[in-house]
Amino acid sequence: MTAMDSILITPLAERPSLISRVYEITDTWPVFTPHDPVAGALLSRVAEDFPHYCVVATDGDRVVARGLSVPFNAGLEGREEMPDRGWDQVLVWAFRDRRHGRPTTTASALEITIDTEYLGRGLAHRMLAALRDAVGGEGHDGLPAPVRPTAKHLEPRVAMAEYIRRRRDDGLPADPWLRVHVKAGGTIEKVAPASMTVSASLAQWRRWTGLTFESDGLVDVPGALVPVHCATAHDHAVYVEPNVWVRHRWPVTAGCRAARSSGRRDR
Which CATH number goes with the domain that contains 69? Predict the structure, then answer.
């Protein structure tokens, strides 16, 4: 048995005992991202409130990866499947719709996170496929994803629109995570220019990053996809992260049509 053979990936709804453990993973997310207010308020509730839209990977008793998505109603006035406010917006819509008992029309991926010890083993491909299967099983024929390109932080001053046009000789995206999505059948649709926002005092930014934040203007912060805007006179700095909307589609089975038309909601 290889290391990959020992990893089991399942919908979280089938393993409810792991709901409280999906955040045990040692990850590579930048230190400032948990301070996005939407993430701080809602992300920890996704696994419990939308387990049918989430997947978990284990290696024995160890949780080694999670994949999260949420359903929402994109047909209401002022909404769309791929909003400019990306990650933050779909998360807010999902919990608002759940509270009001609205039927869902689409689902959006939120993240696939792999434990640092399991990176580079092809697990991301398997997790993406499992997340697509879980969403398809709930009656949806596609999965938009506000993707965070994994190598963009190396070039924070490059506009995201320019970055996503870069291709390798084989025509695939230069960015590794965008490449995973495209190889899995995803289509790059557009940039979500304000997908996540973190605003805080300069003292907080200094504490998170170890940087001085002593001059007005753009500050390159390790892990950030674009520079942070610093305003010393106002004692704050703001990070507005762009993501990339990638759309996955698949044929709708008879079972999926029935689930959707019945107005099935999340448990």
Answer: 3.40.630.30
Give the span between the Cα atoms of 132 and 109, in whole angstroms. Answer: 9
- Answer yes or no: is 131 within a domain: yes
Instruction: Provide the token pair at 97.
Output: 């719709």
Using one digit for the tens of pLDDT, what is the confidence trace for 110-166?
Answer: 999 999 999 999 999 999 999 999 999 999 999 999 999 999 999 999 999 999 999
pTM above 0.85, yes or no: yes
Domain around 63:
4-192+243-261
Distance separating alpha carbons of residues 85 and 107, to the nearest angstrom = 15
CA 42 to chain CA mean position, Å: 13
Structural domains of the chain, count = 1
Between the two ends of the chain, the Cα-to-Cα distance in Å is 36
Q: Please say whether the beta carbons of 144 and 81 come within 8 A.
A: yes
**205 within domain boundaries:** no
Determine which helix (DSSP H) or strand (DSSP E) holds 193, and give its type and residue range.
strand 187-201
Helix count and strand count (H, E) for the chain: 8, 9
